[in-house]
Structure formats: structure tokens, C-alpha cells
Design a protein that fits this description.
The protein starts with 11 loop residues before the first strand and ends with a strand. It is built from no helices and 5 strands. It has a 5-stranded antiparallel β-sheet with strand order 4-3-2-1-5, with no helix packed on it. Helix content is 0%, strand content 42%. It is mostly beta strands.
């Protein structure tokens, strides 16, 4: 991932936070610059500045 590169709005991604080694599946919300977990029992969002690495999921 490039330093300032972010996925397109609505992209399905997997991402890893700076403070965790666990990959999480989610969707990117470009309007709010948030990564949203899609398999969480509660709405869980992560600010893009907290993300160490992300990858697009195969559709």
C-alpha cells in the first residue's frame, strides 16, 4: 500500500490496524474515511489513519 493510497468507496477489503496483527474483512467508506468491519456483531469502524495495511478482496 502506498503511503496515502486508499481504496475506492464501497471496496471490499481486508485490513490490519497498526496496534493489532489480526486481518479483518470490511468495506471502505470514502465519504467518512473509515474502514467498516463486515463480520462484526456490532457496527465497528476504524479510522483510515489507524490502518497499517489493506488489500482488496477478490469479488
Amino acid at each position: 500500500m502506498e503511503e496515502k493510497a486508499l481504496p475506492e468507496n464501497g471496496s471490499l477489503v481486508r485490513f490490519m490496524r497498526h496496534d493489532d496483527d489480526e486481518w479483518r474483512d470490511g468495506e471502505y467508506d470514502a465519504e467518512n474515511n473509515m474502514f467498516i468491519e463486515i463480520y462484526s456483531t456490532e457496527l465497528t469502524t476504524h479510522n483510515w489513519t489507524d490502518i497499517r495495511q489493506w488489500e482488496l478482496l477478490d469479488e
